[in-house]
Amino acid sequence: MKVATWNVNSVRARKAHLIEYLRADGAPDVVLLQELKVEEAGFPRAEVEEAGYHALVSGQKTYNGVAILSRLPAAERMRGLPDGDGDSQARYLEAEIGGLVVASVYAPNGNPVGTEKFAYKLAWMERMAARAAALFEEERAVVIGGDWNVCPTARDVWDERAMASDALLQPESRAAWRRLIWQGWTDAFRALHADEAGYTYWDYQAGAWPRDHGMRIDHLLLSPHAAQRLSASSVDRGPRGKDSPSDHTPVWCALTD
């Protein structure tokens, strides 16, 4: 099974790119989407289904929004993280597909540092860690994928000094990421590519894409039962090079039977 994650940065604006991706040879069996920026009624369900996918959608007007697309039917398990105290932001969706548990994650950006947005980011990551721990205890094949808005180490960013003030690189953000990893999760891409940068995001400004000034902030985390099936993982840079692209590009992993 091939599982991909992609922050499309508006599913309406990127609809043609998404459908092309779903119809391409070797397209993933499961696609986790983030930053839909539409309510569920505005999601292009008919076009996605025509491309051969079922769709679970947790949408939100203008901001956020996550989805799970799958060739096999998906059974929804949870939308939104527990203990949110009325948090209405659409950032988490969990489902079961053919014996595999998957979750689409859109973690808060947190900029600017020192504001309520950064505090919300860290609190959300704590809630995510609690949910990840509960999933880990199920001792099943689980893939948690999405835009984590964390750049884990210096090798995951084009210039750590230039980006030092960004919330994605702060010690607190990286510590939150490490707490997840230390539960026993495997970073699918990094497990197979120890030295490759593997950027998944390039800002629209300052010629970041042609200069390859990127960051690796989109990740697929595998439970041990999924990690032992990991056979391949890669970043698909193609969609970022298209006209009017998302500022993110897909990253995927393949799990053997």
CATH fold-level topology: Deoxyribonuclease I, Chain A
Main β sheet profile? 6 strands, mixed
Please give the alpha-carbon distance between the first and last residues. 7 Å
Number of DSSP strands? Answer: 14
The succession of helices and strands, N to C, reads: EHEHEEEEEHEHEHEEEHEE
Description:
The mean pLDDT is 98. Helices cover 22% and strands 26% of the residues. Helix 3 (116-137) packs parallel to helix 4. The protein is globular. A hairpin with a 2-residue loop joins strand 6 and strand 7 (100-106). The chain contains six helices and 14 strands. The chain has one domain: Deoxyribonuclease I, Chain A (4-Layer Sandwich). Strands 3-4-2-1-14-13 form a six-stranded mixed beta sheet. A six-stranded mixed beta sheet has the order 5-6-7-8-12-9. It has a two-stranded antiparallel ribbon with strand order 10-11. It starts with a strand and ends with a strand. With 257 residues, the protein is an alpha+beta fold.
Note the topology.
Elements: E1 2-7, H1 15-23, E2 30-34, H2 45-50, E3 54-58, E4 66-70, E5 75-79, E6 92-97, E7 100-106, H3 116-137, E8 142-147, H4 171-181, E9 186-187, H5 188-192, E10 201-202, E11 214-215, E12 218-222, H6 224-227, E13 230-235, E14 251-255
Parallel strand pairs: 1-2, 7-8
Antiparallel strand pairs: 1-14, 2-4, 3-4, 5-6, 6-7, 8-12, 9-12, 10-11, 13-14
